[in-house]
Amino acid sequence: MTGKKPSVLFVCVHNAGRSQMAAAFLTALSQGAIEVRSAGSQPADTVNPAAVEAMSELGIDMSAEIPKVLTTEAVKESDVVITMGCGDECPYFPGKRYEDWVLEDPAGQGVDAVRPIRDEIRTHIETLIDSLIPAAS
Description:
4 helices, alpha/beta, 4 strands
C-alpha cells in the first residue's frame, strides 16, 4: 500500500441528486479516509432540494454543495469512477476501476420518492468503503 488515500469520483449527468448523495455519504461514512469527488457532464444550477432534505434527515448537510462539471482531469485523478445509471460516458484510463450503479433518478421527485434512492446509495457506499478500506469493516 502506498499510503495514498483512495479516491472516488461519482458521475451523473446533472450532478444534482444521486452523485451528490453518494459523495456526501462517502465523505461522512469514510471519515476522511477516502478522497471524494462528484461531477456531471451537464451540471444543474443547484443540488436537488429533495436530495438535500433526504440527506439532512440523516444528519448529513449537502445544502452548500454546487454541481460541478466533469473534467478529464477529475477522472484521471480518481482510482474509482462510478456512474449513477444515468448513461454518462467517462474518459477511460487503464488501471482505474469503473462501476455503474443503476439507480432511479430523483429529479423532479419529492422527498418521499428520494428516500429509497438515498437508502440504496448508502448500501452501495458501505460496500464500496469495505472494498477500499477492508479494515474499516
